[in-house]
Design goal:
By secondary structure, this protein is an all-alpha fold. The longest helix is centred in the N-terminal third of the chain and has 20 residues. The chain folds into 2 domains: 76 residues, lambda repressor-like DNA-binding domains (434 Repressor (Amino-terminal Domain), Orthogonal Bundle), CATH 1.10.260.40; 37 residues, no CATH class. The protein is built from 8 helices and no strands.
Length: 120
């Protein structure tokens, strides 16, 4: 089934976003492929826009990249919904999401420790 020029452009932009987000998270194509249960070549094909990313794979891809589905798709719907400055906790979570995976895990371990101590 042939796709339109608009659809082709959409998947090329989506692939470029996936590649950019993956790199900022310091995730290799091999790691991403393992997480999603596909080959490294498939991830590469998604990123360069040679293959369309299945709709069913989008939620898992967004989770693996630590972003909202809207952000992955490039939707700016969140900006219209904001009513004012984001609470400090939300801003911190967004900054943590930008850290490499190993640093994210470290922050999560620290938070788990503090929460566990507070609940005693």
């Amino acid at each position: 089934m042939a796709i339109s020029a608009n659809e082709r452009a959409f998947f090329a932009r989506l692939g470029a976003r996936v590649a950019e987000l993956r790199r900022t998270q310091s995730i290799t194509q091999v790691e991403m492929a393992s997480t999603l249960g596909v080959s490294q070549q498939t991830i590469n094909s998604y990123e360069v826009g040679r293959r369309r990313i299945p709709v069913s794979a989008l939620p898992g891809l967004a989770r693996a990249l630590g972003v909202a589905l809207e952000d992955l798709l490039g939707e700016d719907a969140g900006a219209a919904k904001k009513r004012g400055p984001a609470p400090k906790l939300q801003q911190q979570i967004e900054r943590i999401q930008q850290l490499p995976r190993t640093q994210q895990r470290f922050v999560m371990q620290m938070l788990d420790t503090v929460i566990a101590q507070a609940s005693r």
